[in-house]
Amino acid sequence: MSLEDFRHVLGHFPTGVTVVTAMTQEGPTGFCCQSFSSLSLDPPMVLILPARTSTTWPRIEAAGRFCVNVLGHDQADLALGFARSGGDKFAGVTWAPGHNGAPRVEGACAWIEAEVASIGDGGDHVVVHGRVSELAADSSVAPLIFHRGEFAQLNCA
Predict the structure, then answer these.
(1) Domain Flavin reductase like spans what residues (predicted)?
(2) C-beta separation of 105 from 96 below 8 A
(3) First vs last Cα of the chain: how many Å apart?
(4) How is residue 91 annotated by DSSP?
(5) What are the 10-residue block averages of pLDDT along the chain, 157 residues in total?
(6) How far is CA 128 from the centre of its chain?
(7) CATH number of the domain bearing residue 103
């Protein structure tokens, strides 16, 4: 099995697209994260898997709290901006601080605020368990989906 085969086959599993954000002493920071999942109902926990090569994750880890913004169907450009390294990822992005201070991105179909509960090894990624403190959703906004290497929209009619 090659890495290309692995990526190709797993690309058949559609995922939502999220931007994980935090507030640091230097200002807001964030990265695009497709590796996100609910983890536990009791206690409420989520799972994010930032790449070990991420230069943003250490700043979010130091903040100790974050917000998972589940992007809306029309936010593909925003996702691409947060997927790139460097630059001001928040330039032109409308956001407001959540209860834990982490940026909530306007137009997202849901947001989940969490505190870092534990961090583990995940190969070329870091396994982060987040204890959920606040969350909400806007059912009128359809989610942005990533499938087979492309953004797609889910028909939520």
Answers:
(1) 10-153
(2) no
(3) 39
(4) T
(5) 86 91 96 94 97 95 98 96 91 96 98 98 96 97 92 73
(6) 12
(7) 2.30.110.10
